[in-house]
Amino acid sequence: MREGAEVGGSRNTCLEDLLAEFGYTHEQLAGEVNRVAERLFGEPANCTDRHVRRWIAGDVQRPWSRYLLPLQEIFGRSPEAMGFAQRKSTKPLPSPVRPAPVKGVSGVQRRTFIAGALVTALGIDQTPGYGRLGASDIDRIRSTITRLDAHFNGLGGGALVDVAADYLLRLEYALDRCTYGERVERAMHCAMAEVAACAGWSAHDCGQYERASQLRSRALQAALLARDPVLVTRAWSDLAAQAEHAGRPAEAARINRAALSERHLRSQPLISSLLNARLADCLAQTGDPHGMSRHLAAAERTYDRADPTGAPSWLAFLTPAELSGLGAIAHQSAGQYARAEAHAVQTLDLLDERFTRNRAYYNVLLAELQLAQGEYERAAATAAGLRTVGITSSRITARLERVTAASRPQGGPT
């Protein structure tokens, strides 16, 4: 079948729709084909707007490879998905090149099997690398972010650290190499802020605290570039969590207070609830139990005004069970172990089964609280009954090992 063969005037609406979706004119697509062809083959394809018009009109069943390979890379589609006829007499073209390899991104050779499987399962390997970014690209990226957040909430950091960091680099690469309008640019910065935040928590969950700090700083930068006040608040809150873990609860309290003072939080009760609960823990650590109680009560009040059904994916974990769990953490920090234990038990009773990681976390917390009250046998039983299959949080497994060792009777078997 030769270039330019007649096909009875069958218009290629698939390709026409792709041009509209990506925002290309005929001239712009021809120029993009030439640019990509020069990179692939060392010379332009001499494509013109006339070629594009003939493809759309259906005058050409299937373009030559010097045009088709660049088109595959630009749109990330197979020839058939672009509306071209299947050619059975020749070897199939290679898969679309997108996403292009990114310098500095860890390759498949260095990934674990789990991480490699996650890349495919989460859709990260479909990230655009060239061409024009459109609304459908943003929709795919948002779906991937939802899956990233769900994986972290379900199983924890683990392999997700490198996968999410890899995805962040891919998005940065797309932002540098692709073309797009102002709205898509802001959406990309929002996406990068969310991915960096997820990667930051994944690193934190694996005990990689310096890396977590770097990723959270990148999340703040992207949120500021996106001019999204909610994502800026999220980034500040995550940096507060970093400061608290580093032994600076007073600094963490100042950051959380500043975040709570933002006017936009009046219409964001779910985020406000989370910030109040985190601030409560900071105040407990700084010796202010009354302030802790005030902010735990504020967290419950604001949560009652929230509509969790419309929450972003990163807030999916904030359920009534989690709110009770945050109360347990704050009471533990205040040394109120019995009250903390009651909250932890309530958390485990309410917790949705899909939050496997959080169930393990609060079981370990319960064992720690029992141990703090001298109830060694109960702590040992709680720790022994904990299932960690699939959990990829090294922080949780390390705490479990410590509480298991500490709950053994003195002089007993090791």
Model description:
It is a single chain. With 414 residues, this protein is mainly α. Among the domains are: 13-82, Orthogonal Bundle (434 Repressor (Amino-terminal Domain)), CATH 1.10.260; 319-414, Serine Threonine Protein Phosphatase 5, Tetratricopeptide repeat (Alpha Horseshoe), CATH 1.25.40. Helix content is 64%, strand content 0%. It has 18 helices and no strands. The chain starts with 12 loop residues before the first helix and ends in an 8-residue tail after the last helix.
Number of strands: 0
* CATH topology-level name of the domain at 319-414: Serine Threonine Protein Phosphatase 5, Tetratricopeptide repeat
Total DSSP helices: 18
Largest sheet data: none
The name of the CATH architecture of the domain at 319-414 is Alpha Horseshoe
Care to give the gist of this entry?
With 414 residues, the chain is mainly α. The protein contains 18 helices and no strands. Helices cover 64% and strands 0% of the residues.
Task: Please give a handful of descriptors for the protein shown.
414 residues, mainly alpha, 434 Repressor (Amino-terminal Domain), Serine Threonine Protein Phosphatase 5, Tetratricopeptide repeat, elongated, disordered N terminus
Topology summary:
Blueprint: H1 13-22, H2 26-41, H3 49-57, H4 65-75, H5 113-121, H6 135-155, H7 160-177, H8 182-205, H9 209-226, H10 229-245, H11 249-260, H12 269-285, H13 289-304, H14 320-333, H15 337-350, H16 356-372, H17 376-384, H18 394-406
